[in-house]
Structures are given as structure tokens and as C-alpha cells.
């Protein structure tokens, strides 16, 4: 499976689309009625509706980091520094980090190379 994270230019326009080779597996849309995490969708290396392995739980800290920043203070810099670059979301196995915004016209991708 592969994940495609898509968003629009207005609030509540976004989804994580999970695709298999020849078909859509799941579409997980932003849901403002979800009081816990409705203003965003956090996707790690595991399907959102499945448990994560204990040895690679990036989801729980990712949620905690998103909530610590909060919607009112969220921006590209905070998302990168306070969420995406925090361990274990960012770890030695991270190859690529992208932050894109249709509303602000930003497209920033970082390829993380092993210094060895």
C-alpha cells in the first residue's frame, strides 16, 4: 500500500488516501466533528485503523506533538520543528519529509541522507 496525503486550500479539506496497486483501500478525511484530532490527520508508516507495532510507535508521540502545538499555533515551521523532526517521528529510518500547503503555495521536501 501507499499513502497519498492531499489537502485543499480551505479548512477541513484534506484526506489520507491509502492505495493498493490497482484500487483505493481507504480514504480518511479530516473531520471537524472529531473533537480529539479532527483538525488534522496524522499518518505514519501504518494504516490509521490498525495498531502500530510497539517497537515502532511514531503515532502516539506524533499525536502528542500535534496537540502540544495546537491548531492556533500551527504553521510550516512549527510542523517541521516541533512534530516532523521530533524522535521517534523522525528517526534513523526517515528518508523523506515533505510539508506542502495549497493555501500558502509552499512545497518543501527534505531528503535525509545517511551521513555514513
What does this protein look like?
Strand 4 (96-101) and strand 5 form a beta hairpin. The chain starts with a strand and ends in a 5-residue tail after the last strand. It has 116 residues and is an alpha+beta fold. The strands form two sheets. The protein has a three-stranded antiparallel β-sheet with strand order 1-2-3, with no helix packed on it. Helix 1 (59-69) runs antiparallel to helix 2 (76-84). The mean pLDDT is 91. It has two helices and five strands; from the N terminus they run E-E-E-H-H-E-E.
Please render the helix and strand layout as text:
Blueprint: E1 2-7, E2 14-19, E3 24-29, H1 59-69, H2 76-84, E4 96-101, E5 106-111
Antiparallel strand pairs: 1-2, 2-3, 4-5
Helix pairs in contact: 1-2
Short description:
With 116 residues, the protein is an alpha+beta fold. Helix content is 17%, strand content 26%.
Judging from the principal axes of the Cα atoms, what is the shape? Answer: globular
Radius of gyration: 14 Å
Mean pLDDT comes to 91
Number of strands: 5
**Order of SSEs:** EEEHHEE
Strand content: 25-35%
Can you give the helix content as a percent range? 10-25%
Distance between the termini: 30 Å
Largest sheet, strands/sense/barrel: 3 strands, antiparallel
Low-confidence spans: pLDDT under 50, at least 5 residues? none
Tell me the number of helical segments per DSSP (H or I, 4 or more residues long). 2
* Major β-sheet strand ordering: 1-2-3
Protein structure class: alpha+beta
Amino acid at each position: 500500500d501507499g499513502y497519498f496525503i492531499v489537502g485543499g486550500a480551505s479548512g477541513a479539506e484534506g484526506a489520507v488516501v491509502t492505495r493498493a496497486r490497482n484500487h483505493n483501500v481507504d480514504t480518511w478525511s479530516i473531520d471537524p466533528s472529531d473533537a480529539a484530532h479532527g483538525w488534522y490527520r496524522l499518518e505514519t508508516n501504518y494504516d490509521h485503523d490498525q495498531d502500530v507495532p510497539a517497537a515502532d510507535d511514531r503515532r502516539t508521540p506524533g499525536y502528542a506533538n500535534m496537540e502540544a502545538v495546537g491548531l492556533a499555533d500551527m504553521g510550516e515551521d512549527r510542523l517541521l520543528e516541533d512534530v516532523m523532526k521530533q524522535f521517534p517521528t523522525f528517526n534513523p529510518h526517515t528518508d523523506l519529509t515533505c510539508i506542502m500547503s495549497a493555501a500558502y503555495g509552499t512545497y518543501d521536501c527534505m531528503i535525509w541522507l545517511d551521513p555514513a
